[in-house]
Amino acid sequence: MDEKIEEVFHDVLLLSDIKTKEEVIKKMSDYLLDKGYITDEYYLATIERETIFPTGLPTKPIGTAIPHSEAENVVKPAVILAVLNNTVKFSDMSNRENEIDVGIVFLMALKGENNQINYLRNIADFCKEEENVLKIYNSKCKKEAMVIFSEEILMQST
């Protein structure tokens, strides 16, 4: 990966009362836009991409999703994580007809196709482990979730 995870993983959002995938992507996009990581076009481009290429993963015990946009909508690379207090529906990455109840969302704003593919793979590998998903979903604060994710991803990349 061009950027190390500790350079691009910026924050964890604990979101409540979100009802749709569009809402969660909007909240996360607004956060990145306010911090100068993405362009105004990022949100709509991500929603459009999600329709064509869904990013829901049927992880256990709760689904995860990894929405992202193309590099032209990225100012500076960033990955953020949202833990939802209730699940929202995302279409399954491998079969868009299937819907997944998602409680953990990783929003990626990265440059370079190889970079995106590597991060997608690392995040998907992290989420394959039920224990990792459970720890993140049950984390009580942003710092706890950030430490769990950072430590596990750093171990994968060494």
How would you characterize the overall build of this protein?
This protein starts with a helix and ends with a helix. Strands 1-4-5-3-2 form a five-stranded mixed sheet. Helix 2 (21-34) packs antiparallel against helix 3 and helix 5 (130-137) runs antiparallel to helix 6. Strand 4 and strand 5 (99-109) form a beta hairpin. It has helices at 5-8, 21-34, 42-52, 113-128, 130-137, 142-156; strands spanning 9-15, 56-57, 63-65, 78-91, 99-109. The longest helix has 16 residues, at 113-128. The mean pLDDT is 89. The chain has a single domain, classed as Mannitol-specific EII, Chain A (3-Layer(aba) Sandwich), CATH 3.40.930. It is built from six helices and five strands, in the order αβααββββααα.
Features:
5 strands, 5-stranded mixed sheet, PTS_SugarTrans_NitroReg, Mannitol-specific EII, Chain A, transport, globular, 158 residues, alpha/beta, PTrfase/Anion_transptr
Provide a short characterization of the protein structure:
The protein is α/β, with parallel strands linked by helices. The chain has a single domain, classed as Mannitol-specific EII, Chain A (3-Layer(aba) Sandwich), CATH 3.40.930.
